[in-house]
Amino acid sequence: MPHLTHYLPELQDPERSYIQGLIGRMSHEQLQVFASAYRQRRKDPHTVLLAAIIGLVAFPGLQRFWLGQIGMGFIYLFYVGIAIDRFDIGFGEIRNASTTLQPKSGAGNRH
Question: Is 87 exposed, middle or buried (0-12, 13-18, 19+ CB in 10 A)?
């Protein structure tokens, strides 16, 4: 069984355990090709977390676009847009209801 730390020493658990299960029967040459391809596609977890935080605050779905998941990025973008519209409509109705419930000035002072 090949040692993953020789090919991909930067991995941490549980990612290391998952990849170790994948490479169990690969030859040395296959492992080198796999490790090279995996390094090119792998994203830094801290950068993904930062993109997700920016996605929550400024640009919904940013992390999905950056990871190459274009469809999920659009779903995030459209869902947040719809949610903001619903949220704004709900508060708009509350504001309208609160202004119609207030007594008009001078109307209640007749004797």
Answer: exposed
